[in-house]
From TrEMBL:
Any one GO molecular-function label of the UniProt entry: precorrin-2 dehydrogenase activity
Domain named Siroheme biosynthesis protein Met8 C-terminal: residues: 223-263
Chain residue ranges for the region called Disordered: 264-294
Domain Tetrapyrrole methylase: start-end pairs: 287-498
Record has Repeat as a keyword: no
Keyword Transport: no
Protein name listed in UniProt: Uroporphyrinogen methylase
NCBIfam families per the UniProt record, alphabetical: cysG_Nterm
BP GO terms, sorted: methionine biosynthetic process; methylation; siroheme biosynthetic process; sulfate assimilation
SUPFAM superfamilies: NAD(P)-binding Rossmann-fold domains, Siroheme synthase middle domains-like, Tetrapyrrole methylase
InterPro entries tied to this protein: 4pyrrol_Mease, 4pyrrol_Methylase_sf, 4pyrrole_Mease_sub1, 4pyrrole_Mease_sub2, CobA/CysG_C, Met1_fungi, Met8_C, NAD(P)-bd_dom_sf
Family annotation (Gene3D superfamilies): Cobalt-precorrin-4 Transmethylase, Domain 1, Methyltransferase, Cobalt-precorrin-4 Transmethylase, Domain 2, NAD(P)-binding Rossmann-like Domain
Length: 561
């Protein structure tokens, strides 16, 4: 039985928003250090702060400096009601855009309630220090890095926790991430100017508050792929590790866009794809390792795959391999991430195969790193056959290492026993995406079977109706995304509502769909709710996961510790 929640569900949280304050007038009542800080924040946002205080008021030195240099205006009067309606911009009739009451002690007790009431009646945003009940807005604890801003609030109930949490978040980010935001924003602008002028943006494309939609991985057809470089850029931002994005320079952005354009051309070393320079049975100098990286958390790597990561000369990784695993790759090792997106999968696959062959023929050890298990819908069999047909058919020329498949581990992390006595006595693993993006036919309904659909969420709109024709609408379902990762998400619902749930909640790839009675064995469905969402997973980290867990132990063994 779950422990009772300590959170009061009756308390409404704030709606967080980023306000365009350019040329706004912010009225500041007070002259203390907080007043100086509020003026600095207003100036940073492009607003014009106006301080209202008597001529005899003692000014904080920082505030005095800004008044002296002309960046802050000082109205040398005690606060009066008319200040709210006469000091603002002409275009809004003189009404100020926001009010900050920073004065403390008796002055706040005297002015705070009055100013708050007056502002509320006239719909002027107001913030009164240490009086949440008098405020219509509050300021967040903010980390700023160029265009990147991260704000944290405890809605007045966390004492100084907001600043602590903000520092923890900021310290975990790679340096130069703000510059990366600037660069990729410039790349977006260039794409729009160059070849995307007439292509409509997807709904919410420019809105930071919108998660990836369920259509994020929708198939891009050959007819429109040439005009969708924006889609390619979005995939880079979604799948590349943050450290890699933060290290991107201006010339790297040019290469990213050029790489997209190359999708219409034959892959590099294209001749290698059709012929072999090595005679059958003759082992080339290098070797190729096909390895699965598991569902996501680095502690779920096998020791063999970890050793391969540490010793490879070149790593060719799928875009779904998470940052926690890629972080284990030594800095000295070149890494190439597949530029796959719907509509370009075959081109990207050919490029990786060509790159692997070229490096192996040069005597290098190539690690082809995949998500999950390479032989469970990972195209590992195809790649092995391809390498063999191109001369890598001698013993040891290609090694295949297993990985923990999400088909079986993701249900476990979502507390779904895929087999359970008197509930489910068989498991069927299917794909939701056939060749060239076509949706396959769903399996027949067997009440005692748990069915796991991999690569199905972007096809759910088509898959769900065809499944409903064979399955009862009340069949329990679970959508499991980023299994084993800290941002794991589980959506529990039924076949009747699964498509609607995914459309409403958005996409967080990679994900899979589990269907069958086992889905509600440990989590009975709540009456009256179409679906329920569960966020986060920390189980492995609490066991000492990440760099301090199994990976550290493996390193210790390798060093003879």
């Amino acid at each position: 039985m779950a422990a009772p929640s300590l959170i009061d569900a009756s308390i409404n949280n704030s709606m967080l928003a980023g306000l365009n304050c350019t040329d706004n007038i912010h009225l500041v009542v007070g002259t203390n250090p907080l007043a100086a800080a509020r003026c600095a924040q207003s100036l940073a946002a492009g607003a014009h702060p106006v301080v209202v205080a008597p001529q005899t008021a003692e000014l904080h030195y920082g505030l005095q400096r800004r008044i002296d240099d002309g960046s802050v205006k000082w109205v040398r009067e005690a606060f009066a009601d008319e200040h709210l309606f006469t000091l603002g911009r002409e275009e809004v009739g003189g009404v100020v855009d926001a009010v900050f009451v920073t004065a403390g002690g008796p002055l706040r007790e005297e002015l705070g309630p009055h100013i708050s009431s007056l502002c509320k009646r006239n719909r002027i945003p107001v913030n009164v220090v240490d009086a949440p009940h008098l405020c219509t807005f509050s300021l967040l604890s903010v980390h700023s890095d160029g265009p990147l801003q991260i704000g944290v609030t405890t809605n007045g109930r966390g004492c100084k926790l907001a600043s602590r949490i903000r520092r923890e978040i900021a310290s975990s980010l790679p340096p130069n991430l703000g510059a990366a935001c600037q660069r990729f924003g410039e790349a977006r602008r260039r794409i729009q100017q160059h070849d995307d002028k007439e292509a409509p943006l997807a709904e919410g494309d420019l809105d930071d508050s919108v998660d990836q939609s369920a259509l994020f991985n929708k198939l891009v057809t050959e007819e429109d792929v040439r005009n969708r470089r924006m889609r390619w850029l979005s995939q880079v931002c979604e799948y590349w590790p943050l450290k890699k994005l933060a290290s991107v320079a201006d010339h790297d952005v040019d290469r990213i866009l050029e790489a997209y354009a190359a999708a219409e051309k034959p892959p590099r070393d294209g001749g290698d794809l059709g012929s072999s320079s090595s005679s059958p049975g003759r082992r080339p100098k290098g070797r190729i390792i096909l390895a699965g990286s598991g569902p996501g958390h680095p502690d779920l790597l096998t020791r063999a795959t970890y050793n391969a990561i540490q010793t490879a000369d070149l790593v060719l990784a799928d875009k779904l391999v998470p940052a926690g695993v890629l972080d284990l790759i030594p800095r000295r090792t070149p890494v190439e991430i597949a530029r796959k997106f719907p509509g370009n999968a075959e081109q990207a696959q050919d490029e990786l195969l060509a790159a692997a062959l070229a490096a192996a023929r040069a005597g290098k050890t190539v690690l082809r790193l995949k998500q999950g298990d390479p032989f469970i819908y990972g195209r590992g069999g195809e790649e092995l056959a391809h390498f063999r047909s191109h001369g890598f058919d001698a013993p040891g020329a290609v090694t295949v290492l297993p990985g923990v498949t999400s088909a079986l581990s993701a249900p476990l992390f979502a507390a779904i026993p895929a087999t359970q006595r008197d509930v489910a006595d068989q498991v069927l693993v299917c794909t939701g995406t056939g060749k060239k993006g076509k949706a396959p036919s769903p399996p027949e309904y067997v009440p005692s079977r748990t069915v796991v659909f991999l690569m199905a969420l972007h096809r759910i709109v088509g898959l769900a109706p065809s499944s409903r024709a064979l399955w009862p609408l009340s069949t329990p379902c679970a959508v499991i995304e980023r299994a084993s990762c800290p941002d794991q998400r589980v959506i529990r619902t039924t076949l009747a509502h699964v498509a609607e749930a995914i459309e409403a909640e958005g996409s967080r790839p990679p994900g899979l769909l589990v269907v069958g009675r086992a889905c509600e064995f440990l989590h009975p469905r709540e009456k009256g709710r179409a679906w329920a969402v569960e966020e986060g997973f920390r189980g492995l980290d609490e066991l000492g996961g990440g760099a301090g867990g199994m990976m550290a132990a493996v390193e210790g063994l390798a060093l003879g510790a």
